[in-house]
Amino acid sequence: MIGKRMQDTINEQIKHELESAYLYLAMVAYFRAEGLDGMATWMEVQTQEEVAHAMRFFNHINERGGRVELRALAQPQKDWPSPLEAFKAAYAHEQFITGTINDLLKVADEENDNPAKIMLQWFVSEQVEEEDAAKKIVDLLTRVGDSGHGLIMVDRELGTRKAAPASGEGEAE
Ligand code: OFO
Fold first, then answer.
1. CATH number, domain at 134?
2. In a domain, 172, yes or no
3. Is 75 domain-assigned?
4. In the chain, how many domains are there?
5. Are the C-beta atoms of residues 22 and 85 closer than 8 Å to each other?
6. From the CB of 17, is ligand 1 less than 6 Å away?
7. Choice from 45, 87, 97 to test ligand 1 binding pocket (greatest atom count within 8 A of CB)
8. From the CB of 171, is ligand 1 less than 6 Å away?
């Protein structure tokens, strides 16, 4: 059975993951309003991934006889000054989430909770991919600047992102 401290920390992480989904969904709305449908598609897939992340934590608590407790989500930002600023915000958010995963690992270590430690390994690798994906787009958008043609090319490219299989494998693609 999962211990109370670990359970509380994971419940807090479920909130963080759902807040990630909420933030990226706000970005979907922003990109749609800007007519950048490719970026909106990319963020839509990202939103689904974040819900899948929350469900990994949700299922972990349930499988170990614990009790999931859903917490209030913060209202996300609505607008960004540019697509570059939106992706910069996504990158900063992923760095924040990496920090929360590291904090979870610390708690798992202190509680000597091996099942949580094993479950968290997946997230350690996932965060490397999450940060890398966001940073690459930030770099790309920085290079093309506000140039209409470059932006359209990036938008088209990001629109090719496909939803991950339901099993959750390949979520970071
Ligand atoms: Fe759940 O990885 Fe992004 O936030």
1. 1.20.1260.10
2. no
3. no
4. 1
5. no
6. yes
7. 97
8. no
- Predicted pLDDT of residue 146: 73
Q: Locate the ligand 1 atom nearest the alpha carbon of residue 50 and give its number.
A: 1
Within a domain: residue 116? yes
Residue with tokens 């950048």: 36
- Give the domain extent around 36: 4-70+80-158
What tens digit of pLDDT does each residue of 44-101 get?
Answer: 999 999 999 999 999 999 999 999 999 999 999 999 999 999 999 999 999 999 999 9
Q: Residues with Cβ < 8 Å from 75, sequence gap 6 or more?
A: none
**What rounded mean pLDDT belongs to the chain?**
94
C-alpha pair distances (Å), 91 with each of 11, 117, 136: 23, 25, 9
Residue nearest to atom 1 of ligand 1 (CA): 50
Does the reported pTM lie above 0.90? yes
Give domain status of residue 54, yes or no.
yes
Model confidence pLDDT, tens digit, residues 134-154: 999 999 999 998 778 999 999
Q: How many CB atoms lie within 10 A of CB 33?
A: 11
Q: How far away, in angstroms, is 149 Cα from ligand 1 center? A: 30
